[in-house]
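Students often ask why we bother encoding 3D structure as a string. The short answer is that it lets us treat folding as translation between two languages. Here is a chain of 149 residues written in the first language.
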Amino acid sequence: MATPRDRGRPAADLPPPDARMPPLALTAGVLGLVGALPTLFLAVVAVALGGLAADAGPDPWTYLLLAAPVVQVLGATGLLTRRSWLLLVLAVVPVALLAGAVVWAATGTADAGNPSLPLLLLVAPVLAAVLAATTRVRRWVAARPRRTR
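And here it is in the second language, the structure alphabet:
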């Protein structure tokens, strides 16, 4: 019978956790990296066109535009290196805010075209977040070997 001190420790007769990367984790990491490309392209174009400083001063939304792909790449890299799955899941928030701002700005113009096209920015990041939040991927990240001193 397990004592209170032994709770949380793996039983001696259980095999060690599988160290191989699950296909869902690899897919989520790759989708996270690929999903950052459209946002990064949008950020580069906006900064190249002088988007960091408007006539009235700096535009605060452009900093979100610059931060969104960086956070997403950090999250995907963290998942692929078995450090964190949560950062990739939370990286969808700035991308979603950015896509919402683009859709909102596009609907305010007369010749906006199709306002659902900017929502394509969300396809790969949302799929990456859903795959990273699966139980198999979370267990794989949680079972990574810890450093010993």
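Translate back mentally: The chain has a mean pLDDT of 80. Keep this in mind for the problem set.
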